[in-house]
Design goal:
Elements: E1 4-5, H1 12-37, H2 40-66, E2 70-71, E3 76-78, H3 80-103, H4 107-131, E4 133-135, E5 137-141, H5 143-165, H6 170-193, E6 195-199, H7 211-235, H8 239-258
Antiparallel strand pairs: 1-2, 3-4, 5-6
Helix pairs in contact: 1-2, 1-5, 1-6, 1-7, 2-3, 2-4, 2-7, 3-4, 4-5, 4-6, 5-6
Length: 259
C-alpha cells in the first residue's frame, strides 16, 4: 500500500483551493442572478460566464488541492489530454445545470435540476481528473465514499442555487458562495479518502506532465481569469439599475426641454 499525503504542501493547498472554489462559485452564482435579470443573448452570455466561472473554479480547486497530493514510493504524472478533458467536462456539465436553472419555468424545478447537473459536473470532473493520474501502481476506490462524495456535491450545489435563486440578498450571496466552496472542497477530500493505491514499484518513466509543469500554470491562468471576471462583474451595472438610470436621464431631458 502506498502511503498517501493529501497535504504535502502544508496548509497552502487546502486554503488556496478552497479560496478558488469560493471565488468561482461567487462569480458563477452572481452571473446566474444577472442572467435572470436579463433576457435573449444577454441571458445566454451571463449563463455561459456563470458556467465557465463555476466550472473553472471547481477544476482549479481540484488541481490546486492535488498539488498537495503525494504518494510515497512513486512519482505522479498527469495525463495532459485527460486533464484538459476534465476541465471541459467540468464547464460542460455545470453549463447543463446552470442553463437548466436559468431557463427553467419554475424556480423549484430549475434549482433541483440545476443542482443535480452542477453536482454531477463536480463529481464527473473530479473522477476524470483522477483518471488522469499516472503513477506506478493502481488506484482503487471505496464505493461507499465515492457515492457519498457525489451526494455531497449534488446537495451542496442545490443548496447554493437555492440560496442564490430563491432567497435573495448580498449576505446570502456570500453565504451561498461559501457553502458551495465548502461543498466542493469537502466533496474533493471525501473523494480523495475513497482512494487507495497499491504500488507496483518500477523505475520506468511515467508519461504525462508533472503538476508544476502543467497544472500550476493552467491554475494560475484560470485563477487570474476568475479574479478579473469578478472585478468586471462587480463593476458592470446590473440590468435594473442601468435601466432606472437611463429612465431618470430621459425624464431629466424631457424636463429640460419643457422648462
Amino acid at each position: 500500500m502506498g502511503h498517501m499525503d493529501h497535504f504535502s504542501a502544508g496548509w497552502v493547498t487546502p486554503v488556496l483551493s478552497y479560496l478558488m472554489a469560493c471565488v468561482g462559485s461567487a462569480l458563477g452564482l452572481r452571473c446566474t442572478v444577472r442572467a435572470l435579470e436579463s433576457d435573449g443573448a444577454s441571458r445566454r452570455n451571463w449563463l455561459l460566464l456563470a458556467s465557465i466561472a463555476i466550472g473553472s473554479g471547481i477544476w482549479t480547486m481540484h488541481f490546486i488541492a492535488m498539488m498537495g497530493f503525494s504518494v510515497d514510493g512513486t512519482p505522479i504524472r498527469y495525463d495532459v489530454p485527460l486533464t484538459a478533458l476534465s476541465l471541459l467536462m467540468s464547464v460542460g456539465v455545470v453549463a447543463a445545470g446552470v442553463f437548466t436553472a436559468g431557463y427553467g419555468r419554475s424556480r423549484v424545478t430549475s434549482v433541483a435540476l440545476g443542482g443535480l447537473g452542477t453536482g454531477l459536473g463536480v463529481a464527473a470532473m473530479h473522477y476524470t481528473g483522477m483518471a488522469a493520474l499516472n503513477l506506478h501502481g493502481t488506484v482503487h476506490y471505496d464505493p461507499a465514499l465515492v457515492v457519498a462524495s457525489v451526494v455531497i456535491a449534488v446537495v451542496a450545489a442545490t443548496a447554493a442555487l437555492t440560496l442564490t435563486l430563491i432567497v435573495r440578498g448580498p449576505v446570502l450571496a456570500t453565504v451561498a458562495a461559501l457553502v458551495m466552496g465548502i461543498a466542493v472542497s469537502s466533496m474533493h477530500y471525501t473523494a480523495m479518502y475513497a482512494v487507495s493505491i497499491s504500488l507496483a514499484p518500477s523505475s520506468a518513466a511515467l508519461s504525462g506532465a508533472t503538476a508544476t509543469e502543467f497544472i500550476f500554470p493552467l491554475a494560475v491562468v484560470l485563477g487570474s481569469f476568475l479574479f478579473l471576471a469578478s472585478a468586471y462583474v462587480a463593476l458592470s451595472p446590473t440590468g435594473k439599475r442601468h435601466e432606472s438610470a437611463a429612465a431618470a436621464e430621459l425624464l431629466r431631458q424631457v424636463e429640460l426641454s419643457t422648462a
